[in-house]
Design a protein that fits this description.
Blueprint lengths: L4 H4 L15 E6 L6 H15 L8 H24 L1 E5 L2 E6 L5 E6 L3 E7 L2 H6 L1 E8 L8 E6 L1 H14 L20 H5 L3
Antiparallel strand pairs: 1-2, 2-3, 3-4, 5-6, 6-7
Length: 191
């Protein structure tokens, strides 16, 4: 691991408690929709650069504006790339930032409730937002936005919590086989 690589890749493995047996179950990068606007900004640089010869002596002004917009949009894309949400067998955590890096973590034992919201566009494109509720009043890991495949990630977290024995397993009062016969039609058509 070189010094420069810390600023170019999230390197979530260095935050793991390897000696305690912690391992990554899912590493979630931000959904691609978060880079659409910065990519449009980069595309807007092209006409700015094309306008340079038309500006005569002020060509440098278009160059500065174009380079500034390009640099800003590339920084936004890199910030999204460096933002990772990680699900391990022991906890969930989020690492984000380039120059200043922030780490927020929550043990599985502290997760009381997970809310998943998907706006209309999120349902179309396959992303959603997580809200973690815990017993703590103030927590560093509450809202995780633009998570791809949120239903699958929620089931992953619920499965880890259940397998770890952190929540009491509930025995069903009856099974699907109890409904065999005349009532099975109600289960198949959703009524």
């Amino acid at each position: 691991m070189s010094f420069l690589s810390r600023f170019l890749a999230p390197e979530v493995d260095r935050h793991l408690l390897v000696d305690q047996g912690e391992f990554i179950i899912d590493e979630v990068a931000k959904h691609w929709v978060t880079v659409v606007l910065p990519a449009m900004g980069i595309a807007a640089c092209i006409p700015i650069f094309w306008a340079m010869p038309l500006l005569g002596a002020f060509w440098w002004l278009a160059l500065l504006v174009g380079l500034g917009l390009f640099s800003y949009c590339m920084l936004l894309i890199h910030l999204q790339f460096m933002d990772r949400f990680v699900i391990t067998n022991m906890r969930v955590f989020r690492v984000h930032g380039v120059l200043d890096q922030n780490l927020a973590t929550m043990p599985m034992t502290r997760i009381l409730d997970i809310s998943v919201s998907q706006p209309f566009l999120g349902r179309l494109l396959g992303y959603g937002h997580f809200t973690f509720e815990s017993a703590a009043q103030d927590q560093g890991l509450r809202d995780i936005r633009f998570v791809g495949r949120p239903e699958q990630r929620d089931l992953t977290i619920q499965g880890v919590i259940q397998r770890a024995g952190l929540r009491k397993a509930v025995e069903p009062l009856f099974s699907r086989q109890d409904y065999e016969g005349e009532d099975s039609d109600h289960l198949d058509d959703g009524s």
